[in-house]
Protein: Glycosyltransferase
Amino acid sequence: MSEPFTGESANSGKSVLLVAFACEPDSGSESANGWNWSEGLKRSGCRVTVVTQGRLRPKILGKIERGETALEPDDFVFIDRPDTMAHHDSKTRFQLSYIAWQWRCRAVVKELVRRRPFDVIHNVTIGGIRFPAFCGGLAPLSVIGPVGGGERAPWPLIRPLGWKAVATELVRDAAIAMTRIDPFLRLTYRRYNLIYVKTHESRHVLPAGDRHKARQHFGCSLPPDRFVPMKAETGGDAGAPLKLRFSGRFLYWKGGHYALAALARALEKGARARLQMIGSGPQSEEWKTLADRLGIADQVDFVEWLSQPDYMEVLRSSDALLFPSLHDSAANVIMEALANAQPVICLDLGGSGIMIDSSCGFAVPCRGRAAAEVIDGLADAIVTLDRDRPRLRAMSRAAHARAQDFASCRITPDLYTPASASASASA
Structure:
């Protein structure tokens, strides 16, 4: 990844137009990515204009009025989503709404460019590699991403999750394969000069003729208030059970099944540990039933979604994150754990396997291994952190240091060096 901005740069003063569907200040996870990116560029000397959703206007303007940001009201252009699709729970309707909003942006962006040319136009929070975008080619440098979604889970880990998971993954794999030949997506990526991808797996999903334009960047960025001050001693009370946390939507591919199975196996091996499962979703009842069946219900606390202040309090009281996601491209929950000096136990799949190394956690190998072997690997990591508290403390310090790689101060104008003129960046 590019170094933090510390002074003058050849790219300082660039005029950047960000198309940021997700641009919500003071929020967690993906919702804040556009906002953090905007602030990072503003602080590092860029002239920034942000096109975002109309529903975010009160929150953004309130933040500006309170003097809590360097951004100004004139830096924002608000575009509403189609009324018929703005409020719904259907995933398909949301995706259609998102694409329709992107299409609306093109006309607005063309008018903005006519009035004042921009050096860079960047679709910064499009997120998924299988979604089209429509603002490419409207500036000397057109940037898209970081995009993810090309990651695949090993079938030995999918099959134990049931026929619905298998069917869903088959459809997903087919959709990923179609990305290379979809004419709308081929046109999308052809129009962009620089494509940021979250993982190398997503790079290989791009049409072959566009892969040379790709650079790797996770896209997630943490503002300064997400970092807890590092204590002299951190990483768990030696006399208390290890406090583990799982945070995320309760979807089969987020790995809750494997988190619970690993906890049960670790307890069998003599570990002292408790697990908080924070979130909700389609697998909620299934995972509660699984905890009962494994005989660990007394060691697992299921917690519904919390307000941001309550969540931060729970986050900061944990010792480690247990997050065996099967194909996350870049999990904000991992970055939040690192910023709070917490080691991460995950699988070496998707972005997780790149973000976590042996200094700050355990990325358990999966390729060529049966589900039982993977569960054993996760369990061994839990046992290690429980029994070796000095190592837990060392990993906590390393986690805090690793989190600096994801700080918003690393969002700089140097990220807009054309791909052909620079080496691949890494997050």
In short: The chain has a mean pLDDT of 87. The chain has two domains: 15-221+408-421, 225-405.
